[in-house]
Design brief:
93 residues; mainly alpha; extended; GDT1-like; GDT1 family protein; transmembrane; membrane; metal ion transmembrane transporter activity
Length: 93
Amino acid sequence: MLDWHLLGLSFITVFLSELGDKSQLAAIALSGSSKSPRAVFFGTAVALLLTSLLGVIVGEGAAHLLPVGWVKAIAAIGFAFMAWRLLFSQPEE
């Protein structure tokens, strides 16, 4: 049976995290310079589906190897590290 709450939470989380990210900017650039925005849409949609599938498979595998709390802690540390780098990295010249 499908967990509708988890489906909604997953949708909202991914939707909000994808707004304004590099892949969306790449899709904007590609569709702006393309004569076939439909091809850009399908290409980016399939890419997002495959990367999401990979993330689910890796997450499920990690959950079987490690306690869920550890997986969450590793993810939180990874996000904190990325945030730290974004906040304090010097722009390349």
